[in-house]
Amino acid sequence: MQWAKGLGLGLGAAAFLGLGVIVGHFAIPKGADPPASQDLDLEVLDTVIGQLEAGGIQENLRELAREPHLASSPRDEALVQLLLQRWQDPASGLDEASASTYEVLLSFPSPEQPNLVTVVDPIGEILFFCNQSEKNLTGEQGGPDVVPPYAAYAPPGTSQGLLVYANQGTEEDFMELEAQGIKLNDTIALTRYGGVGRGAKAINAAKHGVVGVLVYTDPADINDGQSLPNETFPHSWRLPPSGVERGSYYEYFGDPLTPYLPATHSSFRLDPDSVSGFPPIPTQPIGFDSAQVLLCNLRGNMAPDTWQGALGCDYRLGPGFRPDGRFGEYSQVNVSVYNRRELRNSSNILGLIRGAVEPDRYVLYGNHRDSWVHGAVDPSSGTAVLLELSRVLGTLLKKGTWRPRRSILFASWGAEEFGLIGSTEFAEEFFRKLQERTVAYINVDIAVFANATLRAQGTPPVQSVIFSSAKQIPAPGPGGLTIYDNWIRYFNRSSSVYGLIPSLGTLGAGSDYAPFLHFLGISSMDIAYTYDRSKTSARIYPTYHTAFDTFGYVDKFVDPGFSSHRAVAQTAGSTLLRLSDSLILPLNVSDYSETLRGFLQAAQHGLGALLEQHGIGLGPLVSAVENFEKAAMALNQRMLALQEGSPDPLQVRMLNDQLMLLERTFLNPRAFPEERYYSHVLWAPRTGSVATFPGLANACSRAKDTAPGSAAWAEVRRQLSIVVAALEGATATLRPVADL
Amino acid sequence: MQWAKGLGLGLGAAAFLGLGVIVGHFAIPKGADPPASQDLDLEVLDTVIGQLEAGGIQENLRELAREPHLASSPRDEALVQLLLQRWQDPASGLDEASASTYEVLLSFPSPEQPNLVTVVDPIGEILFFCNQSEKNLTGEQGGPDVVPPYAAYAPPGTSQGLLVYANQGTEEDFMELEAQGIKLNDTIALTRYGGVGRGAKAINAAKHGVVGVLVYTDPADINDGQSLPNETFPHSWRLPPSGVERGSYYEYFGDPLTPYLPATHSSFRLDPDSVSGFPPIPTQPIGFDSAQVLLCNLRGNMAPDTWQGALGCDYRLGPGFRPDGRFGEYSQVNVSVYNRRELRNSSNILGLIRGAVEPDRYVLYGNHRDSWVHGAVDPSSGTAVLLELSRVLGTLLKKGTWRPRRSILFASWGAEEFGLIGSTEFAEEFFRKLQERTVAYINVDIAVFANATLRAQGTPPVQSVIFSSAKQIPAPGPGGLTIYDNWIRYFNRSSSVYGLIPSLGTLGAGSDYAPFLHFLGISSMDIAYTYDRSKTSARIYPTYHTAFDTFGYVDKFVDPGFSSHRAVAQTAGSTLLRLSDSLILPLNVSDYSETLRGFLQAAQHGLGALLEQHGIGLGPLVSAVENFEKAAMALNQRMLALQEGSPDPLQVRMLNDQLMLLERTFLNPRAFPEERYYSHVLWAPRTGSVATFPGLANACSRAKDTAPGSAAWAEVRRQLSIVVAALEGATATLRPVADL
């Protein structure tokens, strides 16, 4: 199976070119192709950075965000054709591009029966309708292509009961309500976004007998407290009262019916009714205008201070409404959901620049294409950057002035909003090929949240290459700072190795890097421009996943002039080029030493005493970390020796293989059998407060209240051995390749 | 962690040499090292083959088999020193050698309380003692170092009951006994070796209420019917009446307490009492002399014809003894077992020849060192060959006339007899490093079963290189045939691609190749000389796992003159050199096409109708196989084109990576969660008669009697998708490396 299916067209040609590649770049007619660069060419790098234009990104975004392009919608398919056309352009396209389609389970509201949230009195009279759609403030919020607000994968059904306010719908929140003597059985819970994932709110609620869940965005969490129409979009970047955050309420990622298998037409599929991870009860998101009417009429105890918000009233817990309020004490809330789960075709698009020297080494650069509505910020800001970057590189390629040392693979993923589906299916289909050959994955999803500073997340080996890129590029705005110098003003940490440096964030599972990092063990990163946290406490940019996330919104409020978009394109582009063209891979594996040392110290301080009480020593972990540090340092010395000499190609390849494959050595598919796709023993989800090895931390929090000798304590010991074995295994791969 | 621990001595040197390797073989002082050969040097190959001496192997074996060397015994440790000394010899040693120790769970009989099998009458009088040890026929079967016959890992305990004869102790055998109206509760079952694994006999028996198990070797199965003292060893190679096959009765492989983790001192260990895979009831092997006394006195129905043997009486089923026989009808059999499970240190020894050009590519060659008693055939015949081969290569190395292109790693594994423990712990400890870098694993355990013909087993990619070796070497004995031409006379098949060729067997889990193939996905092979099946139907060589497997036995009966040993050394040595020195790896991945086509046809003919009835089509599997065939053929064409040109080193490396890593692409650690270590979707254990994809075949046999829509039928669909995804994934890795 090719990387990409569906467009058979490219195949014959591909096979021919493939032969060309193997027979070598010599075989590619001269003139058509430049002599292969043996190392990063700084002139080319400057050229690329210089040719990336804000205006180009702006025009890309205008087109990409012109219409809503929900996954598998006609406009989504039209964008597939648009990207293919760009990547196949004779003057500025790539070597090859094609689309690949999977058949995946998505979830949509019924076109015939809108989801409905109402307040009804005891005789069934409807006293109040929550808004079923957002107000059409700019002429873009109406029309058939704007999907009404809904909770994707929430089951159809009608629930009715007394309303309670459950804050963020965490397990603790529901326990607090019960502690206050509130019976949750058969109630409807009003929750606000934040604290836990979307799906978790409904799953937690159902555990406590709640029969329906409403979710809204509190102005305190998104608008720095402001909520009036004249304070919000289109008068500012803030969320208007009718704005509703859509989103997937599925707990895992990947196509829900084909875990670990590519969702091809013929693939085995689970029975949808037996799939875990879906919300168990009807769930619907609403705007804070409607939420205010419900919340400000609740009776009962005053909610705790931390539960209060900015809707201009005291938040009470319920159950039910005030007798002296708008609805009367016997009125209930009715939640009617008509969502449907459907198998739909969703496409990834892949665009390739063939490497001249090591075509079998891939640098992946991707973003998703699908949005909830117009998705100007999410994801089109990233796609606009992707297209500008591929245009500049494609133009150099077609001119014959440049071809990378390694292959570059651009990807436009489908159905990310439903749970990283396109990227996960791709990772499942090409598991081994990607694991063996992928140098790194660069993700630029939301390119610009705000225009204050760069924000990068990634695994330790990518820190150095992102820093190199950021030091080379001027930051937008006055002051003449580099992106790096500007970045360090906003996010910094004191490194035991480097002193004060910008702090690279860690990767969760919020975008398409998740399958590459957690399932395939590929060094990954996510790059964006973001907020000045001293100016806003917004959870995320205010119109996130609403119909107000439009081109005008970006053009006027998020990044006027698109200079932050350009800065992201330059940073990501420079990082891409360094990874694809450098003779020696710019992956500093020794930066893992600082992370491991930090995890170790956190384990010693945070868990050491507890473990001690149960006769579990951290000695083996201490030596494992020390062994890693020594081996990484020695590897760096050998690398320097190699760079000083005139290394032969195989010596470089052997070293690069060690650098590329280090991340893989941390995978253990048997470490967390209950955590789907999570195999990376350092970055799996961590419960509990100690920032350390997740398997160990999670096992400790499960064991701490159990008896000595319990199965939970055995699991702590097992997790300790798993991480020690992973570190010692990683160290073995860093040692000289032919040492005993 | 280095490859090898324990002997810190080598480490500093290792690090220095390691640096040397990276800086390149240029850096190694001239004179000390020859210019690196870029391709296989046929002169060197002939030299090696010519210098391998039967006499050297004979003397190795004389020393290795001089004393019993049970795993972790003092003599086993002495042999560790002997091998280290050979591999560290200044004139004929390797670059480096060191030992590495694991702490593993073994099982031994009690030195104080011998296991005892008796016949007792109703008042407790002992009427008969089964022999507790083998007769000391050559002066080698006595003494403290000869471990008495026992069933390793069988639990201690005493059971007593009426005796039944249960043939081979298969599930079907016990069902047959019940069908004949025999109540198995509280009986002792006498079984004979063969049919199923050792442990399975006890596990099956316990399911039917049996409380103790005896196992013996029937002369019909091992001696072609002969059983008299003057017909057997020391008068012939046949098993004498008191001979008892020892063995591990553990159902899995690897250290029982540390599945998937290396058995380091600090590793997490399971509670031994909660480990699965051990025999649940007292079990003891006995000689056919004792078995005859028991079996020929049984009462009850005549056993089926296929259950009859060569003990010179009619085999009856019991329960209990004949009233007119030696014991009387109320006598019972008592089985008293005093085995102990103990944590013991067991060592692997690793010897390295550093590759000159690609030191990070490893060709592994290994055999276990531990035996049950003297173990002249098993395993010392293989170790004697290993030492002769390492001597010849080491001498060339030390002379400075040769250094391989790739690294060669020789291994002497510990505790194989208890369940492939040393090799499995090594595979667990260096999982990623081995997966990334190992070209192939060559196993020579029992080098010579008999001296008629070569017998090789392996995965398809190794067929061609074994054939090349076999065609180059003269077969022992008259006729002037090559090993290949002699081989084809004994084992052959008609290949759709090659016509009549020797048939390469498939690999199960009978020796140390199992963890490398099934857990790591490394192309593996096992090479030996074996029987003329027209002359004997023996299950295996007669003295297998007995105290009669001695140097004299080999020297006199198995391979007088050691010419078959030499033939194995030459074949394995040639294969090793071809894999380590050839510019392009001699792994013919396209030979997998014939295997896949065969599996597919077997699935179509053997399962197609059944699947059809349940609406399961094999279409996706058909195209997956076709896609693989096309990609493999195209790869071969590119390889030829490359060989004709003057390929640059990276082009060769890229192609070799495709060849080396193909086997890996068939691994899916989530395919068979219940089958410990088995991840290879083509070679996992297969129940049922259809020789096809094991996951599919096994799922079908479980599903065939269940209702449509059962979970078992869903598993059939899942297994079909798993194998399709594995084949398509493999195909993707064979395609040109930079094709979309």
Automatic annotation (TrEMBL), chains A, B:
<comment type="subunit">
    <text>Homodimer.</text>
</comment>
<keyword id="KW-0862">Zinc</keyword>
<dbReference type="Pfam" id="PF02225">
    <property type="entry name" value="PA"/>
</dbReference>
<dbReference type="GO" id="GO:0004180">
    <property type="term" value="F:carboxypeptidase activity"/>
</dbReference>
<dbReference type="InterPro" id="IPR007484">
    <property type="entry name" value="Peptidase_M28"/>
</dbReference>
<protein>
    <recommendedName>
        <fullName>Aminopeptidase NAALADL1</fullName>
    </recommendedName>
</protein>
<dbReference type="GO" id="GO:0016324">
    <property type="term" value="C:apical plasma membrane"/>
</dbReference>
<dbReference type="Pfam" id="PF04389">
    <property type="entry name" value="Peptidase_M28"/>
</dbReference>
<keyword id="KW-0106">Calcium</keyword>
<dbReference type="GO" id="GO:0046872">
    <property type="term" value="F:metal ion binding"/>
</dbReference>
<comment type="function">
    <text>Aminopeptidase with broad substrate specificity. Has lower activity with substrates that have Asp or Glu in the P2' position, or Pro in the P3' position. Lacks activity with substrates that have both Pro in the P3' position and Asp or Glu in the P2' position. Lacks carboxypeptidase activity. Lacks dipeptidyl-peptidase IV type activity.</text>
</comment>
<keyword id="KW-1003">Cell membrane</keyword>
<keyword id="KW-0378">Hydrolase</keyword>
<keyword id="KW-0482">Metalloprotease</keyword>
<feature type="domain" description="Peptidase M28">
    <location>
        <begin position="348"/>
        <end position="556"/>
    </location>
</feature>
<feature type="domain" description="PA">
    <location>
        <begin position="162"/>
        <end position="247"/>
    </location>
</feature>
<dbReference type="GO" id="GO:0008237">
    <property type="term" value="F:metallopeptidase activity"/>
</dbReference>
<keyword id="KW-0735">Signal-anchor</keyword>
<dbReference type="InterPro" id="IPR039373">
    <property type="entry name" value="Peptidase_M28B"/>
</dbReference>
<feature type="transmembrane region" description="Helical">
    <location>
        <begin position="7"/>
        <end position="28"/>
    </location>
</feature>
<dbReference type="Pfam" id="PF04253">
    <property type="entry name" value="TFR_dimer"/>
</dbReference>
<dbReference type="GO" id="GO:0004177">
    <property type="term" value="F:aminopeptidase activity"/>
</dbReference>
<keyword id="KW-0479">Metal-binding</keyword>
<dbReference type="InterPro" id="IPR007365">
    <property type="entry name" value="TFR-like_dimer_dom"/>
</dbReference>
<keyword id="KW-1133">Transmembrane helix</keyword>
<dbReference type="InterPro" id="IPR036757">
    <property type="entry name" value="TFR-like_dimer_dom_sf"/>
</dbReference>
<comment type="similarity">
    <text>Belongs to the peptidase M28 family. M28B subfamily.</text>
</comment>
<keyword id="KW-0031">Aminopeptidase</keyword>
<dbReference type="InterPro" id="IPR046450">
    <property type="entry name" value="PA_dom_sf"/>
</dbReference>
<dbReference type="InterPro" id="IPR003137">
    <property type="entry name" value="PA_domain"/>
</dbReference>
<keyword id="KW-0325">Glycoprotein</keyword>
<keyword id="KW-0645">Protease</keyword>
<keyword id="KW-0472">Membrane</keyword>
<feature type="domain" description="Transferrin receptor-like dimerisation">
    <location>
        <begin position="618"/>
        <end position="734"/>
    </location>
</feature>
<dbReference type="GO" id="GO:0006508">
    <property type="term" value="P:proteolysis"/>
</dbReference>
<keyword id="KW-1015">Disulfide bond</keyword>
<keyword id="KW-0812">Transmembrane</keyword>
